[in-house]
């Protein structure tokens, strides 16, 4: 069964037929500018949930977990997301405030990976985010916390059919 699964998986297409080009030499100096450009291309292409990303966290012992979240914004060098402070990710971020985000726009053959430290934002910012959620009833959720990942590395990845994928890495404040 393993070989038949392997053959079945290898027969699946890896990339869409048409992918955008990416000239890393022409990339802007600011990774936020490039990210916003790629995000808007994904939005214009009709990519479903282009603001969704995988967040990987780890316990103090290094046990890793990941889940999908929604980007709330990018402010003051921090890529914002929110969650309950008492969730698994909230507890892990207290134990080990390092995380990785990965945005994936499969229909464009693109990914953006960020790695860095995470800080919990203020009660006021967290409350404002909770109250701005669709369907909010105006009641404050004291467990809701807005977080910001401040990247030490951001990698933009563009797939290519010839397998010579393009990677462009920023190391802010390095």
TrEMBL record:
Top-rank lineage group of the source organism: Bacteria
Domain Pyridoxamine 5'-phosphate oxidase N-terminal: 42-157
Cofactor field: FMN
GO molecular function: FMN binding; pyridoxamine phosphate oxidase activity
Keywords, ordered alphabetically: Flavoprotein, FMN, Oxidoreductase
Residues involved in FMN binding: 67-72, 88-89, 111
Keyword Flavoprotein: yes
GO biological process: pyridoxine biosynthetic process
InterPro entries in UniProt: Pyridox_Oxase, Pyridox_Oxase_N, Split_barrel_FMN-bd
Gene3D superfamilies given in the database record: Electron Transport, Fmn-binding Protein, Chain A
PANTHER family: PYRIDOXINE-5'-PHOSPHATE OXIDASE, PYRIDOXINE-5-PHOSPHATE OXIDASE
The name this protein goes by in its record: Pyridoxamine 5'-phosphate oxidase
């Amino acid at each position: 069964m393993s070989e038949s699964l392997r053959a079945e998986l290898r027969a699946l297409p890896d990339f869409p037929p048409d992918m955008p080009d990416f000239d890393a030499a022409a990339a802007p100096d600011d990774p936020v500018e490039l990210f916003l450009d790629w995000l808007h291309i994904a939005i214009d292409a009709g990519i479903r949930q282009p603001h969704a990303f995988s967040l990987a966290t780890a316990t103090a012992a290094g046990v890793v977990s990941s889940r999908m979240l929604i980007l709330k914004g990018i402010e003051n060098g921090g890529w914002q997301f929110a969650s309950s402070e008492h969730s698994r990710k909230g507890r892990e971020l207290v134990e080990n405030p390092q995380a990785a985000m990965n945005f994936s726009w499969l229909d464009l053959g693109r990914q953006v990976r960020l790695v860095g430290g995470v800080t919990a934002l203020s009660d006021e910012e967290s409350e404002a985010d909770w109250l701005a959620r669709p369907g909010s009833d105006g009641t404050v959720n004291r467990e809701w916390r807005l977080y910001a990942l401040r990247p030490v590395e951001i990698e933009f990845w563009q797939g290519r059919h010839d397998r010579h994928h393009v990677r462009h890495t920023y190391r802010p404040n390095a």
